[in-house]
Design a protein that fits this description.
- The protein has three helices and eight strands, in the order ααββββββαββ.
- By secondary structure, the chain is α+β, with helices and mostly antiparallel strands.
- It has two domains: about 80 residues; about 140 residues, Sortase (Sortase, Chain: A, Beta Barrel), CATH 2.40.260.
- An eight-stranded mixed beta barrel has the order 1-2-3-4-7-8-6-5.
- The protein is globular and about 50 Å long.
- Keywords: Hydrolase, Membrane, Transmembrane, Transmembrane helix.
- GO terms for molecular function: hydrolase activity.
- It holds the Pfam family Sortase.
- InterPro entries: Sortase, Sortase_dom-sf, Sortase_F.
């Protein structure tokens, strides 16, 4: 009776035990379902994050590719431009003869530098002329200078005795050792006192190709063995 009474007094324990066991099973199912849902949710989050990250990085990838392409294109454009071929400067051969038809001059050209006094040398032969070899050759840019004697020791005319008769427009020619003929036209004639010759005009730099002829002129001083003046003929190359 006491046992029955006990069962009647506490009928809920048995039901409670059964309900408790069922609740555990439900909780297990819920836990597994929740875990599975969480896994799916996490995967979806990672998938979305991957897509988002890819969209962010995509412009940088294309930008890098475009930069590489642009750089390669620039390099190619630079490398295909051919280097300009330098124009060779024509060389002028050494002068051999001086021709002035108006004065009937056809003379050999000697080469001189400066003498012991620092003055331009003169030709050894009174019928020859002398080119100042430390300056430009005739037909080269600058002032080429050729000197000749006015007269001989005996007083007879030398090669440039009649140089003062040249006028503007008269022609002067030189023949180089390679046979080329260079023709110059007289542009000016000047007579200077022997100690006032403008050396810069005669020997200095000049943008064109000029040939200057110089000789003595005027009154002869027997004491100094020198003439009072110098005649200078300026002429420019006729380009052909």
């Amino acid at each position: 009776m006491l046992i029955m009474q006990s069962e009647q007094l506490y009928p809920s324990y048995a039901g409670l035990s059964r309900r408790t066991s069922g609740s555990k099973q439900l909780r297990g199912v819920y836990t597994r379902a929740n875990s599975f849902a969480s896994g799916i949710k996490t995967s979806i989050i990672y998938f979305i994050a991957g897509i988002f990250l890819g969209l962010i990085m995509l412009p940088f990838i294309f930008k890098t590719d475009n930069a590489y392409y642009s750089q390669s294109k620039v390099i190619l454009e630079i490398t295909v431009i051919p280097s300009p071929t330098p124009t060779p400067t024509p060389t002028v051969a050494m002068p051999q003869r001086l021709i002035i038809d108006k004065l009937a001059i056809d003379s050999s050209i000697e080469y001189v530098g400066l003498d012991g006094k620092g003055a331009m040398g003169t030709p050894q032969n009174f019928d020859n002329v002398a080119w100042y070899q430390d300056g430009p050759k005739p037909a080269e840019p600058g002032n080429a200078v050729i000197a000749g004697h006015f007269d001989k020791v005996t007083g007879a005319p030398a090669v440039f005795y009649n140089l003062t008769s040249l006028q503007v427009g008269d022609l002067i020619s030189t023949i180089a050792e390679d046979g080329k003929v260079y023709t110059f036209a007289v542009t000016n004639k000047k007579i200077y006192p022997y100690n006032q010759v403008p050396l810069d005009d005669l020997f200095g730099e000049y943008k064109s190709k000029r040939l200057n002829l110089i000789t003595c002129e005027g009154i002869f001083n027997r004491k100094t063995q020198n003439y009072s003046n110098r005649t200078v003929i300026y002429s420019d190359l006729i380009e052909r």
